[in-house]
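Re: that chain you flagged

S.,

Sorry for the slow reply, it's been a week of failed gels. I finally had a moment to sit down with the sequence you sent. For the record, here it is as I used it:
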Amino acid sequence: MLPPWHPDSFADRACYLRRRALLTKATRAFFDARGYLEVETPYAVPAPGEEVHLQTFATELRTPAGGTRKLWLNTSPEFAMKRLLVAGAGPIFQLARVWRNGEAGELHTPEFTMLEWYRPGAGLAALMDETEAYLRATLPPVCTRAGLTVDLARFERLTMADAFTRFAGADLLGTLDDAGALADSAGVIRRGGEGWEDLFFRLLLERVEPQIGRGQPTFLTHWPAAQAALAVRDPADPRVALRFELYACGLELANAFEELTDAAEQRARFVADRALRHALRGPDWPLDEDFLAALAHGLPQASGIALGFDRLAMLATGARRIDEVQWLPARNDLI
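Prediction finished late last night. Pasting the C-alpha cells below so you have them in one place:
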C-alpha cells in the first residue's frame, strides 16, 4: 500500500479532493449568505462530552511554572459553541476537527471534520428545512454512491416510532425500557445480557438503517428521550426528544437537536450518562461545571446540528471510503 503522500496515491484521490475544496467554499458561502458567523473553538478541552459510548484521546497541558493538567481532544465542538450562544454570538457555524478513538473503517476514522451550526430561535422543523437547503446548495441534484441514488428534490421525514413499526414490526414506544417486550414485538430472540438500549440499537442497525435514505434522503426524527441527552423532550409526547439524524446513500450524515436549555435537567442527564460510562470504562474527566454554569446563565432556545463533512464529500463524489476524500488520511496499517 502506497503512503498517502505518494504522488500516485494522491493522484487517485485528486478529483475527490478538488470536489471537497469546492464543497468547503460553497459551505462558507451558504452560511455567510444566511447571516451566520464562522467561529473557532478549542480542540483540547477539560471535558470532551458526556457520551456513554464514544472513546476519547487524552493529552496533557504543561504550564510555564511546571504544573500539569489533563485535557482531551474534543469529540465535538458542541459545548463550546453553546457557550458562544449564551454569550450572544447569534447564528454560528464551524468546520471543526474532531477526534474519536477506536474508530476505523470505510466510514470511520479517528480524526475527521465536523460541520456544526446553531441557530437561535429555530425549532427542529426549521433546522430540517435549512439542512435541505444546504444540501441542495452544495451537492448535485442527484447523488449516487455504493449503488444507491438519492434525489434531493424531495426529503423524507420519518419518526423513529413509525420507522420501527414499518421496518422492524415493533412497537417502540409501547415497549420502552422493557427489553423482553421489545424483542417479542420485533419477533427476535434477545442475546445474553442484552438490555433495551442494546436491542434498540441492534434493530436500528439491522432493520431500520438499511431501509432508509434510498431514493431520497431521510430525516429519522423523534428519538426515545434516553437516546438524546442534549435535546429537549417533545411537549406533545415526553417519551421522545426533538432529535433527528439524516441518512442518504448508506451514510449517516448528521445528528441534530432542538437544544435542551434547562440546566438542572441537563445536569441530571449528565450524571446518569457518567455513571453508565464509568461502569464501562472507569473514571475519566470531571463534570463540565463551566458548561452547566453557562446553561444556567441562559442558553437561548435554539437548534443545532453536527454533520460529518468527510461523509458529505463522499456523497458529493460517490467515494466508497472516507480516506478517499481526506487530504492526508490516517495510515490504515497504523490504526
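What I noticed first: The CA atoms of residues 258 and 303 lie 4 Å apart.

Talk soon,
D.
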